[in-house]
Amino acid sequence: MVVAEVVNVTEQLKDGYDVVVVGGGAAGLNGALMLGRARRSVLVIDAGAPRNAPADGVHGLLARDGIPPGELLERGRAEVRGYGGQVVSGEVDTVVRAGDGFAVTLADGRSVRARRLLVTTGLVDELPEIPGLRSRWGRDVVHCPYCHGWEIRDQAIGVLATGPMAVHQALLFRQWSADVTLFTHTMAAPTGEDAEQLAARGITVVQGEVAALEVADDRLVGLRMSDGRVVARQALAVVARMAARAGFLAALGLRPVEHPSGMGQHIPSEVTGRTEVPGVWVAGNITDLFAQVGSAAAAGAFAAAQLNADLITEDIDRAVAAYRNPFSSENEARLAELVAADRRHGL
Asked: Where would I find the H helices in 143-282?
């Protein structure tokens, strides 16, 4: 796996930026790329904990299928910097309102100002506490058939029931393998139409709690039940509960709420990415729990375009106000800058 390094935390930051992007994944970097191309000053702050880091490759991404996640981010950072954007390593501690913008404080004490925020910090997968499960996450313990189904095709696949989507997920993975088993774990066995659909598709249901994963030669070989049985499996699908990384937004009154799917919490937004807090946009998994890398990147680009349009409107309003009042403090400051520039050039 290629792990890209972010610029050292000692890199000099400016006092203020048009936009600070919090989160350096696909959504954040593509948003920053669009903002850089729009000639905006942009800073990306990346905590360096991408959700897909355990995976060997990014799949379903046109022209980049199978690219290691770290390599994709490394290329993205280089492209953002090519348009004058900054990408630095760090974790945002707090964000507070400062005048008509924001003050962003990092955990290491650095602070910058931003006219607008684009938050793309993604989410955290909250996994069941089953011994051996987390260490296999992103390898032979997976969550998305469109991300990993091809890689585990025709294998003996287990589906661990963790919520109301368990039967749906088992039926989905049946597309990639004829050998699918649903483990009810701590949930009740399916009944009615659910049980009929599973039976019709040849999906076995194993009742009882899963105690641990059995691993041999660094490969998943089965699930050990609480009664001691071991059910042979080569891959395991788990629907994790998803939690938005958004604690630093609390001071702005922006907190995660339950997603309509019931599968976790997100920051709700308009289709443009605009949130209920003026000046704050979101994109990617922090608002869309089911966004894959390609759709997250597209959402980041779209939100950046809408955000830039909002800044343009503000720039026009300021220009019109200054035009109407030539003796405003802003015009006097601008005149002083022009006079100083003339003097530097000997005029």
From this structure: 145-148, 166-173, 192-200
Long-range contacts of 193-199 (CB under 8 A, 24+ apart): 194/167, 197/167, 197/171, 198/167, 198/170, 198/171
Cα(315)–Cα(313) distance, integer angstroms: 5
pTM of the model: 0.88
pLDDT in tens, 27-61: 999 999 999 999 999 999 999 989 888 888 999 99
Cβ–Cβ under 8 Å, residues 157 and 176: yes
Residue 28 is classified by DSSP as H
CB 133 within 8 A of CB 220: no
Closest by CA to 157, choosing from 232, 224, 211, 57, is 232
- Angle at which helices 69-82 and 26-37 cross, to 10°: 20
Q: Cβ neighbours of residue 219 under 8 Å, at least 6 residues apart?
A: 140, 234
Total length of the chain: 347
Domains of the chain, with CATH numbers?
A: 16-125+241-320 (3.50.50.60), 128-238 (3.50.50.60)
| CA–CA distances in Å: residue 189 to residues 160, 173, 194, 284, 301 | 12, 18, 10, 34, 43
Neighbouring C-beta atoms of residue 217, cutoff 10 Å: 5
